[in-house]
Amino acid sequence: MNLFNIIEEIEKVDPEFTDRINPRRDAIKNITSFGSKVALASLPFAMGTMFKKAYAADSTASVTDVLNYALTLEYLESYFYNSGTAAKGLIPTSDASYIADITDDENHHVTFLQGVIKSLGATPVTAPKFDLTGGNGSGKGPFADVLTNYQTFLAVAETFEDTGVRAYKGQAPNLLGNQVVLTAALSIHAVEARHASAIRLLRCNKGYASIEPWITSSASNGNDTGIPLIDGNYKGENNITQGGVDITSLPSATPGQKTAIGLATAAFDEPLSMSDVLALLVGTFIVH
Amino acid sequence: MKTETTQNPGGVNLHRRAFLQYAGAGAAAIGLLAAGCKKLDGVGMKKTSANGIDIGSGDLAILNYAYALEQLEAAFYNQVATTPYKNINASESYRLLNIRGHEVIHREFFKAALGANAIPDLTPDFSSIDFTDRTSVLKAAKAFEDTGVAAYDGAGYLIQNPDYLTIAGKIVSVEARHAAYIRNLLNFGDYAGSDVIDANGLNNSMTIAQVLAIANTFLKTKVSASHYNYVA
Hints:
Strand content of chain B: under 5%
Radius of gyration of chain A: 21 Å
Strand order of the largest sheet of chain B: 1-2-3
Number of helices of chain A: 10
Number of strands of chain A: 2
Oligomer: heterodimer
Shape of chain A: globular
CATH superfamily of chain B: Ferritin, core subunit, four-helix bundle
Order of helices and strands of chain A: HHHHHHHHEEHH
Number of domains of chain B: 1
């Protein structure tokens, strides 16, 4: 990594860059005082934080933006489960109540978020047009049989739930210290994770996939679902470095044995940025 | 280390040099964690008695709070791994060992993150759990996992450092996956029961005081949080 090049590239697009990282600037001060304690291994992480702080005022989504983004994702999920429930012969009777509980939660999330946005004096976004086949409105996407083939339906459900978990997680820093909204977002986030676990167990029990309730990545691929088409939704889940520390280097549960990569990745779910999530959904499931 | 140096006075490269000097500082001092890129805020933990501790305040306290819960969970699943319940089947055994692995990782992560500020090793008290009995073990696991989720959800807003907030988020969803799985083992379909999910579809969240009151029933070392209105 050539730091000079990086800074020069940034200066080209942002002439004020050197001023932004001026140590006298308040946002930067608390970083520089820590300089001597920054670990070599964690430098990329430290730099990321520094850039984030330098640009915080420009890039931080407002609370309303975060809520409307969350609402859009909930519209998609609730539309998906309601469509699945309405599709005759799709969900086996034996699984009806199992899926219905998820459907109820997603419908409640929509109502709840609409209410929160209104209570903040803002206007909830309306639901966009969806294509559950992932075909951007053609109805002929890669998941064309999503409402006729239960196996496909559960595969898409798993994708939405795991991605939903990542999407909420990615927005938490934008709600820092906000007791009401952050707590609500974390609480919805936890419910999405419960759903993800439940759908994963169901897929496994049905013999549709050899997976666990948690995401067990390999060193090279975050995606453990057995569906290469959705690799992008799991990109980065194979991260084993947390806060600058290689998790597999910490003392393991079995003395003398190094922590396996799969275990290290499964112990942490990774966030996705708003732009990454929208890039995955818009033009596929969200009609553009 | 100071970065407001004048190595290149008047030059346009001053700040660049300052930045580079900062960035290169790591070579001189290898620490363990830089997630915050600054010292953790808050007042450190203190011993309150021979067998009691207080987590202090600020991010230090919240991380020690999480560390206490992860210690408890790891100790519990270590016991399950050592003395599996009667007639445990292969898939349950495999997945409980997986969960044990995750909890040990969480514990070791917080221990490393806190370094010298970490609370001591806690001594658990699992006398209320019959480790030979599946239902007894899974009910305890459900309590640990559901409480863990509610604890992280409830304490998230107290975290001041965005990087640690993200890491807490990375952990809470894994705890929620565990909770849903354990609940499914006890009662298939109860992965998000009405005892933990409210009418808005929100997972319940708990205060530090509520959580520690439960956690302390499984601990010989009593954990207090006087700054958060709880003394064991």
